[in-house]
What we know:
There is one protein chain. The strands form two sheets. The protein has a four-stranded mixed beta sheet with strand order 3-6-5-4. The protein has 184 residues and is of the alpha/beta class. It starts with a helix and ends with a helix. The protein has helices at residues 2-16, 66-76, 97-103, 105-109, 114-127, 178-183; strands spanning 52-55, 82-85, 88-89, 131-141, 150-160, 165-176. The protein is globular. The model has no long low-confidence stretch (mean pLDDT 89). It contains six helices and six strands, in the order αβαββαααβββα.
Amino acid sequence: SHALLGTAYRHAVDLLEPREVQIHTLHADFHHLVRYPELHYRPTGAPPRPRIFLLLGNTLANVDNELRFFQQLHESAVAGDLVVVDCQLAAAPADRPDEIRRLDGTIREGKPSPEHAAWLSGPFRRHGRDVADVQISVELRQQCAVPGSYEADLVATVRGSDGSVRRFSSWRGRRYDPERLAAC
């Protein structure tokens, strides 16, 4: 969200510039960090300054492949840089699906809240042709790139007025074992 990023930038400037902390922003695709020379630039003779790479919200869960993302981030980082990752933690070990279904509230319920379901089904209802019904359900996915992680996949089952049925992944939330994520 550009509005959220703009607000975050203004807040960082207001809070940190009086303390002589330089703030740099980069409008870029974080799936391809190695493509941005700004991340690699170090002025000749300048003392090394640590940088902070910050992933907030559900950012990590929206990365197509976390291992490739962290590999590219590693290629952009230098000693002393810090990566701060805000992510959802696994409710149970990923290899114990019954325990996950018992302890992870979203997966246990099998469906999102009515408000979340209405929000997720909105685009199908507004833009789908002859949509008769949209149901959102939650499915557990255990095949994730990061060992020890699993995913709550919110699947939209869209029924057409002609009786056709199509399924779409409308949202996903991955949960991570923090120690295994750090090891990756």
